[in-house]
Design goal:
Shape: elongated
Low-confidence stretches: none
CATH topology of the largest domain: Chitinase A, domain 3
CATH architecture of the largest domain: Roll
Mean pLDDT: 84
Number of domains: 2
Structural class: alpha/beta
Largest sheet: 6 strands, mixed
Distance between the termini: 50 Å
Strand content: 15-25%
Number of strands: 8
CATH superfamily of the largest domain: Transcription elongation factor, GreA/GreB, C-terminal domain
Number of helices: 4
Radius of gyration: 21 Å
Length: 164
């Protein structure tokens, strides 16, 4: 067997994203999971489990919560917190924390903000993406006025209108 060490890629998170994941993990461990286990115990006490909807539902919920907990732990296990982003936006090149206005094909301009792995989100007016997403990879290091091709099913072009 080889003594090679497989180097895991760091999960880059903002401090805000890291804190949210810690809070979510604590909520799962201290609130959600105990409530689910209590529901399972109460359902078991009712007797016949073969047709017990509450029991089956609680087991499914437990599996979902355990999956999310595993995902959070994997993100936090090999984390690199990106806090100082002054260099990323110097010279108006796109990087961490960049707020970018994009024109995608013929659609209305969209505003995206570059955040860390596991911090992606869509709000009413801003799309939060990671540098690991196809769009993030395509625009990373680019500047206002650049046009890039995004490798997706649609393979669209994106024009960078503004970088903040």
């Amino acid at each position: 067997m080889s003594d090679e060490i497989i180097k895991k890629k760091k999960n880059q998170l903002t401090k805000e994203g890291y804190d949210k994941l810690i809070a979510e993990r604590n909520e799962i461990n201290e609130v959600k999971m105990p409530a689910i286990l209590k529901t399972i115990a109460e359902a078991k006490a009712m007797g016949d489990l073969s047709e017990n909807f509450e029991y089956k539902s609680a087991l499914e919920e437990k599996d979902l919560v355990n999956s999310r907990l595993k995902e959070i732990n994997e993100l936090l296990d090999n984390v690199e917190i990106i806090d100082n982003v002054e260099d990323a936006t110097k010279g108006k090149k796109i990087g961490f924390w960049s707020k970018v206005t994009l024109q995608m094909d013929n659609s209305d301009p969209k505003v995206v903000v570059i955040k860390g792995t596991g911090e992606v989100d869509i709000t009413e007016d801003i799309i939060y993406i990671s540098l690991e997403s196809p769009l993030g990879k395509a625009i990373n290091g680019k500047k206002k006025g650049d046009i890039v091709r995004v490798k997706t099913e649609a393979n669209g072009e994106v024009k960078i209108l503004e970088v903040e």
